[in-house]
């Protein structure tokens, strides 16, 4: 089966500056959450901008569902099945939750499809259904993030790109938001996730990719990345919990490019 999205050997950057991404390759398989972690400025958000057509790569290829969509802009990428939930909060605060969510389906002509997708996202995100007629600006940060998720799923994307969904949230709201990310995956949408909160995100993800110097430095099952003490020191803000006498952290089985 084709990957939901595949970025192959991407070079990308801004204006005439040196490239930020230098031969980056990453793919997201159906039914999986892939998390990109890495130091500040490593290029994590840039990967998502390339994946959603906001930034055209200088070279490399982008495939969605096996179809080459390299060079397409954001509208075509959305039509191809790639939805992008941007960093920070993007709800329209003076509009209701309903109006915000329905904006996500404005390109859908068939009213029956809009009704079906609306029912789907209301079911997936109970807070969206509960606060349907409330002004979005009155919701908490975590609730607003779920409205953004619901809006992005209106077009039934193959893959959703999430840029730092926990930004500005307290630990409880962060947990709720990550639980909803898992529900999105379980409901059939693959997820490419970028997070500062690397440990928390890797606890949620199926696979992790560590970005450094504009390419994927290490990738593997998220649990194995989390258990790797060296990675913990370098990229995850400290060592993992000490292994217990009966087992504990398994030896990592992670892949380095070319290795
Ligand atoms: N719009 C832009 N114009 C010019 N340079 C940019 C722009 N956006 C990002 N950059 C530069 O690209 C590099 C990578 O930025 P990016 O935001 O992708 O990194 P990141 O890994 O997501 O960082 P962080 O964890 O701090 O969010 C940085 O050096 C940044 O200054």
UniProtKB/TrEMBL annotation:
Region (Disordered), start-end ranges: 238-259
Classification via Pfam families: ABC_tran
GO MF term list: ATP binding
Protein name listed in UniProt: ABC transporter ATP-binding protein
CDD domains to which the protein is assigned, alphabetical: ABC_TM1139_LivF_branched
Sequence similarity: Belongs to the ABC transporter superfamily.
InterPro entries linked: AAA+_ATPase (IPR003593), ABC_transporter-like_ATP-bd (IPR003439), BCAA_Transport_ATP-bd_LivF (IPR052156), P-loop_NTPase (IPR027417)
Highest taxon, organism lineage: Bacteria
UniProt entry tagged with the keyword Transport: yes
SMART domains, per the entry: AAA (SM00382)
Record-annotated ABC transporter domain positions: 5-238
